[in-house]
Specification:
Blueprint: E1 3-10, H1 17-30, E2 34-42, H2 48-58, E3 62-67, H3 73-83, E4 88-92, H4 104-107, E5 115-121, H5 127-144, E6 155-159, H6 175-185, E7 190-196, H7 210-229
Parallel strand pairs: 1-2, 1-4, 2-3, 5-7
Antiparallel strand pairs: 4-6, 5-6
Length: 231
């Protein structure tokens, strides 16, 4: 039996979080998994938190972590990892741009690897976002000697023990880089798997504003120094 925690970081995803969680539960039940589902509401103001609480009230396999205010993507992921209780931890965003029915194909790889990092097949974002993502991934891989095709793809599966042995500091967009860089530096085995990406059908993207980008670059330089020092 697969033992897995699945979590969804979300910020103002009132139209997406319900169907996304419902689909996840269906997939996990078909796997006959020992599972729990965590919704991390990162300070939403559109009713996402209330919808998440209603889901949890109806299904005791679902729990909700609320941030009183928007703390950032990294903080949302950290809360999800801390709330995970099972042997494996999977996360994807609560915006419905990935199909969680592709998650089971990652499970077989966990016999040989500690982390499976997805990469987007035919990424359904604007040209600017695709160019920025490609440049960011290349820069990160150069700095940390990684061979990752899509560093920020929000479709990743981990052995939970990884998080017992690394300390995370990023609360913003650098979080995926920090996890993979610290895991690689400790010898954890990382592989990759292509997954389909879909256009957003509701809500608005919030991760590409200038403030978020500048914060990520600042954190990147700090992280590079820390890992070089062995911190």
């Amino acid at each position: 039996m697969v033992s897995i925690s699945v979590f969804f970081p979300c910020y103002n995803e009132c139209e997406n979080i319900g169907p996304t969680v419902e689909k996840a539960i269906m997939v996990l039940e078909e796997l006959n998994a020992d599972f729990d589902v965590v919704i991390v509401d990162d300070g939403s103001f559109d009713g996402t938190g209330k919808i998440a609480d209603d889901i949890a009230d109806r299904d005791d396999r679902v729990k909700v972590v609320h941030h009183a205010r928007n703390l950032g993507y990294g903080a949302a992921l950290q809360s999800g990892f801390k709330a995970a209780t099972k042997e494996l931890v999977f996360y994807t965003d609560g915006d419905g741009q990935f199909d969680i029915s592709e998650m089971p194909s990652l499970l077989a790889l966990m016999d040989q690897y500690d982390i499976v990092s997805g990469y987007r097949l035919e990424r359904k974002d604007s040209v600017i976002r695709r160019i920025n993502g490609w440049c960011w991934t290349k820069l990160v891989c150069l700095l940390f000697a990684l061979k990752i095709r899509d560093i920020d793809c929000a479709f990743k599966l981990y052995k939970r023990q990884v998080f017992d042995n690394i300390t995370l500091s990023s609360t913003g967009a650098l979080i995926d880089t920090e996890i993979l860089a610290r895991a690689a530096s400790k010898g954890y085995r990382i592989t990759q798997k292509g997954v389909h990406h879909y256009r957003r059908t509701a809500g608005e993207q919030s991760g590409a504003n200038l403030k978020v980008i500048l914060r990520a670059f600042k954190e990147l330089l700090v992280l590079h120094r820390r890992i070089r020092r062995g911190d």
